[in-house]
Design brief:
Immunoglobulin-like, disordered N terminus, six-stranded antiparallel β-sheet, disordered C terminus, three-stranded antiparallel β-sheet, 21 helices, alpha+beta, about 60% helix, 3 domains
């Protein structure tokens, strides 16, 4: 970049040759009125063009003619060049040009072929544009040129004197040196901020500067010689231009913190980012040149301008300078998109229009301004964030100091409370010890009373048992009195089970003594060895009884004590059929006749301790 600056100073201060006088042009002027053109797709030689120039060339003065890929454009014009003066003709830097001029003998001589890949020193004139020096040979110098391009570029040319053009080149290189020097300085500052803060915003800003530098290098024709590119396509401008748009979108997102402050615009910015990626992909796949239109980028960048305005309304101070930068970008994009339109040409003076069209002066001015304001916005944002952090740090220190003072107060209060608690604990401990002694005395008294109650309960249980047995041994209990002792079948089953297994359980199949107590209503037991199940009534006189067990027990009780009981009357009192009563009483009498006389038992409960065989059960 320093080289461009030095070259600019040299060219600005260089004087013209003593034989060349500034008597012709004071500024750039367009192509002459006799500017003619011949368009073809065939590859004709210069000899063919010279032989047929009267028939093939058409006047193109005042017409807007752009190149098309695959076509060859032959231009012809004559220039009145005064003595001791040379003229410089200049074309766009993306063209491939061969220039011929007619010497004194009427023959055409070839000037240097100028390609985009030629270094500036390899061109006819040291310049970043295609420039050719046309010497004074006669009062009217005839020129023929062959032009090709892979882009749609205007075929117009600009003319100037050698001395004026040299100064213009110097100014141009001076601007380029200043521009890239400023970009490098700002990029260094951005990376320094990133190293200090580790925030993505500075990486996106650096990407923006790199993209802008690549676009400027392409726009000013500096990049093509460095990369050796001859066939310039829109992709060489489209790619860095797209990176500018993408980096601005992300830079806006992180600068204005849209994710937290403007969630809606954050989504819109992501959508714009995705749309631009899609546009780039479509261009790379299908090479649609209309996708290079800057109006697409203006639309996609609209959310950044709107959210900048909203951020200013909310009082975010750096957003003001940021909004100015975005406005500069919009103006720059707009002017670039309208560079060759009638609107711009009609609003500008001729001298300013030529300078801007030729050198991209507006691009330099607005790019420099947007970089300047972006950098100011970053610096202001950094200062504000730093002030906020310092304020937060002071607040934190203040809170910490207050917390320490509060902690000291709490420690003092805690010590005081501990002392008070120690006294209270001692008092309370003494009270508890006294209460414990009283409780021990009360516990001993309660234990003595419980022992007395236990002894009384045991006596009472024995008395109740004797009373119950006495009642059961009575011979004249009515059914209602009997039911007071056996109120339900569950009581009856418990009574029978206790009598049946009062000497312990023994499995009828395997003789095993241990069992599981089942939860069925017959209070059955299940052998733990073989799994045999036995109900409490099985193998007793109550086995297979189909009526109420209380009535069966009562019948057993009556028949045992009075075998001559009136069965007919008893069946009526109990609500049973006479046949049922006779059948069951016969069964009881048979057991009594078989078992009782031999054992001489007087307790009727002995009937339920007897284990009957299968035949007796069936009877």
């Amino acid at each position: 970049m320093l080289l461009y600056y030095v070259l600019g100073v040299i060219f600005c201060n260089a004087s013209s040759d003593g034989n060349l006088k500034m008597v012709y042009l004071k500024e750039d002027v367009p192509s002459p009125k006799n500017y003619s053109i011949f368009v073809t797709t065939a590859s004709y030689s210069i000899d063919y063009i010279i032989e047929n120039e009267k028939n093939i060339f058409e006047n193109a003065f005042g017409k807007s003619i752009n190149t098309r890929p695959g076509s060859k454009y032959w231009v012809r014009y004559s220039l009145p060049i005064p003595k001791h003066t040379s003229i410089v003709v200049e074309y766009d830097n993306v063209l491939n040009i061969e220039m011929y001029y007619q010497d004194e003998g009427g023959n055409y001589k070839k000037l240097k072929t100028s390609k985009p890949s030629n270094f500036f020193s390899e061109r006819d004139i040291f310049s970043n544009k295609h420039a050719f020096t046309l010497p004074h040979i006669s009062d009217s110098l005839k020129v023929i040129g062959k032009i090709t391009s892979e882009m749609s570029v205007g075929l117009g040319s600009l003319l100037n004197t050698t001395q004026n053009y040299s100064k213009k080149i110097g100014i141009n290189f001076l601007f380029i040196g200043i521009y890239f020097g400023m970009v490098l300085l700002v990029m260094f500052i951005a990376m320094l901020f990133y190293a200090l803060l580790y925030q993505k915003i500075y990486l996106w800003y650096s990407l923006y500067l790199i993209s802008l530098s690549l676009f400027a290098a392409s726009y000013w024709g500096i990049l093509y010689p460095l990369l050796g590119i001859d066939k310039i396509k829109y992709i060489h401008l489209f790619f860095p231009y797209s990176c500018i748009t993408l980096s601005i979108l992300m830079y806006t997102k992180y600068f204005l913190e849209t994710k937290t402050k403007f969630p809606f615009f954050d989504v819109v910015i992501w959508i714009s980012f995705a749309c631009k990626i899609l546009v780039v992909a479509l261009y790379l796949i299908f090479e649609l040149d209309f996708l290079y239109e800057q109006s697409i980028d203006l639309i996609l960048l609209t959310p950044t301008l709107i959210v900048s305005i909203e951020s200013v309304k909310k009082g975010f101070k750096p957003a003001g300078i940021f909004l100015i930068s975005m406005s500069m970008i919009y103006v720059n994009f707009f002017l670039h998109s309208q560079e060759h339109t009638t609107l711009i040409n009609s609003l500008m003076p001729a001298s300013l229009r030529h300078m801007m069209s030729l050198w991209g002066f507006y691009f330099f001015i607005f790019s420099a301004l947007e970089i300047l304001f972006f950098n100011l916005a970053l610096v202001q944002r950094f200062i504000i964030l730093k002030m906020e952090k310092e304020y937060e740090h002071k607040q934190t220190l203040s809170f910490q100091t207050q917390a320490l003072e509060k902690e000291r107060e709490n420690v003092d209060l805690k010590e005081q409370l501990n002392q008070n608690l120690t006294v209270l604990v001692a008092q309370r401990t003494e009270q508890l010890e006294t209460a414990n002694r009283q409780l021990i005395i009360q516990q001993e008294e309660i234990y003595r009373i419980n022992e007395l109650l236990k002894s009384d309960n045991q006596k009472l249980s024995i008395d109740i048992e004797k009373l119950t047995q006495a009642r059961l041994l009575r011979k004249n209990l009515s059914f209602d009195e009997f039911q007071s002792t056996f109120p339900d079948e569950s009581t009856c089953l418990t009574f029978i089970a206790d009598l049946k297994w009062k000497n312990g359980f023994g499995c009828q199949k395997c003789g095993y003594k241990k069992f599981y107590l089942l939860t069925d209503k017959y209070q059955s037991r299940k052998c733990k060895s073989c799994g045999y199940k036995e109900s409490s009534t099985l193998h007793t006189i109550l086995s297979n009884v189909k009526f109420d067990l209380r009535k069966a027990l009562y019948l057993s009780y009556l028949i045992y004590h009075d075998p001559l009981t009136n069965i007919a009357k008893l069946s009526t009192d109990l609500g049973l059929s006479t046949a049922t009563c006779y059948e069951f009483t016969d069964k009881i009498k048979a057991v009594i006749e078989e078992k009782v006389p031999k054992n001489n038992h007087s307790d009727w409960t002995f009937l339920f301790e007897l284990k009957l065989n299968v035949e007796s059960e069936k009877k």
